[in-house]
Amino acid sequence: MRRLIDIVFTDDMLYFDSLPEAVDRELGTPLSMLGNALDEGGSPAELLRAARLVDSVAAEWAAALPADLARLIDDMRFAMR
User: Fold this and answer.
1) What are phi and psi of 46, to 5 degrees?
2) Do 54 and 30 meet the contact criterion of CB atoms below 8 Å apart?
């Protein structure tokens, strides 16, 4: 999960800004929630809830996701099992 957040939300936000507009609009908030839960030491339940939200939204936009982002979300999905 940390790798996903670190890649998407770099200091310069170049990766996030390069995402298709619909993807950054729909995934921005769920990814921010996941990043906040990680940064603030959220409970396991908070982390899981945020990760599931990211996964759910990403599934709706799978066709529009860049391959590297889709792979990171798949890795996160696998880690949640």
Assistant:
1) -65, -45
2) yes
